[in-house]
Amino acid sequence: MEHPLTPELCRLLDRARTGRVCILTGAGISAESGIPTFRGEEGYWVVGAKEYRPQEMATRAAFIKMPREVWRWYLYRRHVCRRADPNAGHLALAKLEDALNDRFSLVTQNVDGLHLRAGNSQLRTYQVHGNIDFMRAAKDGEYELFEMDPSICLEKHLPMSDEMWAKLVCPNGMRARPHILWFDEYYNETLYRSTAAMTAAAHCNLLIVIGTSGAASLPMHATAEAARAGAAIINIDPYDNDFAVFARDSPRGYWLQAPSAQVLPRIVDYMIG
Questions:
Q1: Which of 34, 211, 227, 270 has a CA positioned 20 to 30 A from the CA of residue 89?
Q2: What pLDDT digit, counting tens, does each position of 142-151 carry?
Q3: Does the structure show a pLDDT above 80 at 44?
């Protein structure tokens, strides 16, 4: 289905000509690459006879209680992420960064690393919920990140071997944990650059929100900060959500009801053309 760039949308995109552009992405853009959403059916996990929800598995409390099972769950999710490729939407955002350089910033809730694999830089990409390709020491106060070997992943129903379990140790000898912000943890600037992400949103001229429902707090706060500072707000999502409402109610807002992989390449070409 063709989604034309309307005159109203183009007027908002024109703010990118000389201004700062901040992109905020959620699970929707990665779902278009075949990665199930975190709260979907694939997020559930069975330990013994009990089924755990994502909100139970993705916690520090669960890791303390059953670290091997929590790692096993994440290594399966890593297997799913590694199998996926960046889609046209991811590639378009990498192209936009190349064109805008320091006028570009990307805030993502996604931990799959697809933005970096598409070509976006770590410098301008704020991974506020972490990255499943990295681990760090489980001990509090340890901030050094270590990139994981690509072979460390699991298919869903396979048990974790002792050999793989032995690999989940940092080079400093400490037991490792996934570099993921868990449900019972708080945003942290040193680990997740959350304050810098909010600052980027608050100082942009155009904020484009892609594929997020607003279930996490930071995206809604970032959008509110951008709007308060006078930024235009564009929401790209095939489904109605809080950001779509926000965009519709704003005099400088626009809801583009479409999959991001379909429309982002044309939007980026317009912005840099």
A1: 227
A2: 999 999 998 8
A3: no
